[in-house]
Each structure stands twice: as structure tokens, then as C-alpha cells.
Amino acid sequence: MSPFEFLAAGGVVAILLVLGHILTTREATGSALLAAALSGAFAGFTAITIAKEGVLLVWANHTTNLWGVQVWWDLLFATGTALFFVVPRARAAGMNVLPWMVFVGLTASIGLLAMVARLFWLEKRASA
């Protein structure tokens, strides 16, 4: 296996662990710590990627062929769907959603995970 295949397989393992956590926990609010850790780890990986390959390559990856466009659309749909569910809760928790939506728009999952971490933290604080 190539290093890229190992990284891809590691992503599958990581998401399976996260899904296992989601399926086995019965808390009304998710883990702010887990969401923040995932955001930070992915931001770190993204920083390494940008340092090695540059930021403009992301556009080339999503416009070179139909699979690239499909993955781009999937990212947009997944992020939009997540925001559809997260934003009402964020507003109810007192978050100013506009800066968070800009952050998510610029960073996708990094910003979304950070936003969810903040939301979970606010919700747990309010229920305490």
C-alpha cells in the first residue's frame, strides 16, 4: 500500500471509531472534546497538506474529472446538510452563526467540527 492508501485507510478506521462512539453513547449532547480534537487534528493535517502541495491544488482536484466534481458536490451537500441541523441549535445556544458559517465555508469540516465543539460546550454548560 502507498502512503496515501494508508492515510485513506486510517480515515476509514477513524470514522468507524467515531461512529462507534456515536452509536454507544446516550448523551443528549455530543462530546465537545472529541469534536475539538477532530477539528484540531484535521486542521493540522490540512496545514501539512497546504505546506507541501499549496492551497490552489484543491480546486484542481475538484475540477479535473467527474469524480473530482462529485467529491466537491458531496462535500458541499454534506456541509450544507450539517449546517441545516446545527444552525438552529447554535442560535438557540446563543452563538453568532454568521462568523461560524463563514469559517465553515472557508474550511469545511475543520470549521464545522469547531462550531459543533463550541455548540456542545455551550449546551452542556446551559444544562449544568
Head-to-tail CA distance between termini: 48 Å
Order of helices and strands: HHHHHH
Oligomeric category = single chain
Round the mean pLDDT to the nearest integer and report it: 94
Low-pLDDT windows of residues: none
Helix content: over 70%
Beta-strand proportion: under 5%
Instruction: Tell me the total number of β-strands.
Output: 0
* Sheet with most strands: none
Derived from helix and strand composition plus strand pairing, the structural class reads mainly alpha
Rg (C-alpha, Å): 16 Å
Total of DSSP H or I helical runs spanning 4+ residues: 6
Shape: globular
Note down, in words, how this protein is organized.
- With 128 residues, this protein is an all-alpha fold.
- It has six helices and no strands.
- Helix 3 crosses helix 4, helix 4 packs antiparallel against helix 5 and helix 4 (66-92) runs parallel beside helix 6.
Which key terms come to mind for this protein?
mainly alpha, 84% helix, 128 residues
Short description:
With 128 residues, the protein is mainly α. It has 6 helices and no strands. Helix content is 84%, strand content 0%.
